[in-house]
Amino acid sequence: MTHEPRFLVDRMLGPLTRYLRLLGYDTGSADSLPPGNPKEDTNLLQWAEREERILLTRDRELAGRAGGRGFYIGEKEILDQLAFLKERGLIDLSVRLIRCSICNSLLEDAPEEEIRGADYAPTGERGPTFRWCPSCRRLYWMGSHTDDIIGRIDTLNQRSE
Ligand SMILES: [Zn+2]
Q1: How far is the CA of 102 from the centre of ligand 1 (A)?
Q2: How far is the CA of 107 from the centre of ligand 1 (A)?
Q3: Is 116 within a domain?
Q4: 114 with 80, same domain?
Q5: CA 106 to ligand 1 center in whole angstroms
């Protein structure tokens, strides 16, 4: 893979959006568009085209309209969806804490005052290394939102061995 793929995900696949971001992939979401637009499919196609994103959708017709840029995701379970993408060589299954799962911004080193101000952050001498979203000001660290996800992805990696 010469450069990492970027994705655009439809409204039906919300959890997939969050997982792709936790894996570090630049992932746009239809959820960021105003709801109820009858031309949403066309907007998604244009967005994918403009930013060279791979369109992942639960809508077979929309996937077809996107041509080589679109993938129809028929799997219902998140792990099966990730396995589908991995089998096609689109993603690697390893969590990288580089991107906010909520807003897709790149994470930065967490400022001290943000760590002190977050009552949900673990404390201690040898605390974890914190990453921070400058846009939604959410702290991330290995073991936060990631434990469950890393566990599930490990299961998947073992499954495909
Ligand atoms: Zn964010």
Answers
A1: 5
A2: 8
A3: yes
A4: no
A5: 8
Measure 133 CA to ligand 1 centroid, in angstroms.
5
| Residue 48 placed within a domain | yes
SS (H, E, C) the chain: CCCCCEEEECHHHHHHHHHHHHCCCCEEEHHHCCCCCCCHHHHHHHHHHHCCEEEEECCHHHHHHCHHHEEECCCCCHHHHHHHHHHCCCCCCCCCCCECCCCCCECEECCHHHHHHCCCCCCCCCCCCCEECCCCCCEECCCCCHHHHHHHHHHHHHHCC
pLDDT tens track, the chain, 161 positions: 457 999 999 999 989 999 999 999 999 999 999 999 999 999 999 999 999 999 999 999 999 999 999 999 999 999 999 999 999 999 998 888 899 999 999 999 999 899 888 888 887 656 678 899 999 999 988 776 666 777 787 788 787 66
